[in-house]
Amino acid sequence: METKRRSFLKAGALGALVLAAGGGIYRAVHTPRPRRFVLDGEARAALGAIVPAMLDGALPTEPAERKAAIDSTIAGVHTAISHLPLPVQKEVQDLFGLLTLAPARRLLTGVSNGWEQADPKEVSAFLQDWRLHRFALLRTAYGALHDLSLGAWYAQPASWAAIGYPGPMKELS
C-alpha cells in the first residue's frame, strides 16, 4: 500500500494538533508555583565576596567587627529579597544561580576559583565591569547587587553614625 502525500500531510497535521492540545492540557493542570528565594551556601559565599567589595571603606577594619558587619549585611540582603514579589525573587535566584555556577562565574565575572577564595581586587574589577558593561542585563544585575548590598548595610543602625544620620525621630519610634 502506497502512502499518498495528502494522507501523510493530514496525519502530520493531526499529530501536531494532538500534541499541542496535550501540552496545553498538561500546562493547565500542572502550573508550577513560584518558589521563595533561598540563600544557599554558594550564594552566601558569593555575597560574602561581593558585599566587602561594594562596601569598601565603609566596613569596620577590626576583623571580628568586619565579619559581624558582613554577616549582618548578608542577612539583611536575604531579608530584603524575601520581601520582594515572587517573580522578582525568581529573577534574583536566577542571578545567584549564574554567579554560583562555575562555568558561568568564570565567563561572566572572571572569578576563576570559588567565591570563598576570590581575590577582593578580582571581585571589585568584575563589579566595575558589570557597572559599565555594554549589555544592559549585566548593568541591571550590578544595580541589583549594589542596591541590595548598600540597602542592607544602611538599614542597620550601626552604620548610621558614619553618615551622620541620627536615626528616626524619637516621636516616631
From TrEMBL:
Judging by the UniProt lineage, the source's domain of life is Bacteria
PROSITE patterns, per database record? TAT
Recorded hits in NCBIfam families, A to Z, give: TAT_signal_seq
What name has this protein been given in UniProt? Twin-arginine translocation signal domain-containing protein
- Can you name the source organism? Massilia suwonensis
